[in-house]
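Technical annex, item 7. During the second reporting period the consortium partners agreed on a shared format for inverse folding records so that results from different sites could be compared directly. Each record opens with the tokenized structure and is followed by the designed sequence. A conforming record, contributed by the partner at site C, is shown below for reference.
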């Protein structure tokens, strides 16, 4: 009887999305290539440097906000430094503070601030960073789960 209970709970968790075996398989398969992704990203021009200001939703002296091209939530914006900073570890305090203020203000503008939102910064391979130009993901418009990913 206990075996069936466990199987039913696993099936329900899978159906309602609490477990994501496909995501787990993807990241397990991708884990070996993440260090190479870092090398490739650092060797190439940043994809964020060619985004025209007409696409910017907001900006400050050192950063700007855009809608994410591949949204992972109903509201998904990116806050990006205007000059390439490879990761959170290299970012000057004034850039980080401007980025956080832009994230907060963008969440208010998009009306997700009161219900709640998430700010994510992926850092280095084990943090799943794939583009080595610092950027913050601002996600909202749905219930966020923990742990993410």
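Designed sequence (site C submission):
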């Amino acid at each position: 009887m206990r075996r069936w209970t466990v199987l039913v709970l696993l099936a329900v968790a899978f159906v309602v999305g609490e477990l994501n075996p496909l995501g787990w398989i993807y990241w397990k398969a991708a884990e070996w290539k993440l260090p190479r992704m870092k090398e490739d990203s650092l060797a190439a021009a940043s994809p964020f440097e060619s985004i025209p200001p007409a696409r910017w939703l907001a900006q400050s002296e050192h950063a700007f906000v855009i809608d994410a091209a591949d949204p992972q939530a109903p509201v998904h914006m990116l806050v990006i430094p205007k000059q390439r900073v490879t990761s959170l570890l290299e970012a000057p305090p004034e850039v980080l503070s401007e980025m956080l203020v832009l994230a907060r203000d963008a969440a208010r503008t998009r009306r997700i601030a009161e219900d709640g939102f998430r700010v994510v910064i992926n850092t280095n391979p084990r943090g799943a960073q794939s583009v080595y130009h610092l950027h913050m993901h601002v996600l909202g418009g749905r219930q966020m789960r923990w742990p993410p990913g």
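The chain has a mean pLDDT of 87. The longest strand covers residues 75-81. All partners now use this format for quarterly exchanges.
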